[in-house]
């Protein structure tokens, strides 16, 4: 406290030259902060690595495999970004994020891009900038034997969701639901398997894969609300990186890359009941 008062006293008593110098320093600091906050392409290239936020517990999109390495659909795409931007797919640093922390990781410059199965919403678009989408997604609901087939059947029941997800946002706006929330996907699904809720809501794409490994459960509601899209996100105002990502995604679409990524990472998880065009953009 004394240090702050002393500093204020110096400013108040200083001459015009010192005030002018201070103003100049503030402007320079402002410019520096502004530049650093952009995570520009030049900065990424100078660093030699692109930092991408991903899930570590959401197979088949982002997870750590048995060898302790990041794997999944988002990882597959992120490596291609690194290859095309920096010449080597290994020049990517994956940072594990939880759903509720994705926005903060961008705002705090901890990552350059978020690829953690990030659904684009109007609320999120006010805080970060989304590139062109590469996936389609809707909210789904899973229950034992798929017995819950309508939203009305969820009234006064315990519904499990992940904090900070679109499922959380969708049901939190409604008054008739008893929500049980968890930070991590592993916690969410473990609680569901332990019977702590009658149903669980998440992205339908994730649920399609989960029920394949848990046949006692079915996706009774495959689509709630409007269909959304999943896209990479960058810090608000990072126009240079945003434009690069948009051009890259256009190139990958024309090349058929996302279809190959689907076949290599998602097809085995979804099985024959799900077609690529239901999940990804193909053109």
TrEMBL record:
Spell out the SUPFAM superfamilies in the cross-references: Periplasmic binding protein-like II
Which portions of the sequence form the region Disordered?
15-39
The organism encoding this protein is Helicobacter didelphidarum
Give one GO biological process term: amino acid transport
Q: What are the alphabetically sorted keywords of the record?
A: Signal, Transport
Entry's family note: Belongs to the bacterial solute-binding protein 3 family.
> Which Pfam families does this UniProt record tie to the protein?
SBP_bac_3
Q: What segments bear the compositional bias annotation Polar residues?
A: 16-28
Instruction: Identify the CDD domains for this entry.
Output: PBP2_Cysteine
Can you give the residue ranges of the Solute-binding protein family 3/N-terminal domain? 49-269
Top-rank taxon, per record: Bacteria
Tell me what this protein is called.
Answer: Glutamine ABC transporter substrate-binding protein
Where is it found, in Gene Ontology cellular component terms? extracellular region; outer membrane-bounded periplasmic space
């Amino acid at each position: 406290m004394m240090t702050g008062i002393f500093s204020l006293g110096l400013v108040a008593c200083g001459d015009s030259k010192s005030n002018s110098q201070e103003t100049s320093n503030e402007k320079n600091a402002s410019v520096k902060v502004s530049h650093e906050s952009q995570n520009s392409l030049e900065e990424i290239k100078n660093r030699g690595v692109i930092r991408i936020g991903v899930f570590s517990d959401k197979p088949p999109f982002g997870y750590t495999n048995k060898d302790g390495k990041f794997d999944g659909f988002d990882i597959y795409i992120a490596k291609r970004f690194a290859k095309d931007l920096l010449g080597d797919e290994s020049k990517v640093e994956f940072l594990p994020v939880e759903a509720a922390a994705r926005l903060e990781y961008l705002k705090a410059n901890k990552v350059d891009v978020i690829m953690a199965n990030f659904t684009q919403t109007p609320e999120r678009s006010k805080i970060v900038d989304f590139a062109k989408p590469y996936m389609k997604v809707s909210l789904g609901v899973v229950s034992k034997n798929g017995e819950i087939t309508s939203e009305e059947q969820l009234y006064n029941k315990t519904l499990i969701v992940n904090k900070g997800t679109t499922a959380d946002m969708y049901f939190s706006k409604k008054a008739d639901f008893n929500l049980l929330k968890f930070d991590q996907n592993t916690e969410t699904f473990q609680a569901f398997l332990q019977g702590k809720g009658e149903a669980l809501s998440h992205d339908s794409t994730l649920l399609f894969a989960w029920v394949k490994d848990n046949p006692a459960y079915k996706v009774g509601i495959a689509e709630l609300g409007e269909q959304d899209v999943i896209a990479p996100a960058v810090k608000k105002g990072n126009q240079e990186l945003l434009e690069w990502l948009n051009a890259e995604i256009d190139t990958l679409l024309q090349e058929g890359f996302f279809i190959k990524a689907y076949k290599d990472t998602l097809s085995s998880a979804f099985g024959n009941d799900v077609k690529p065009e239901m999940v990804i953009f193909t053109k």
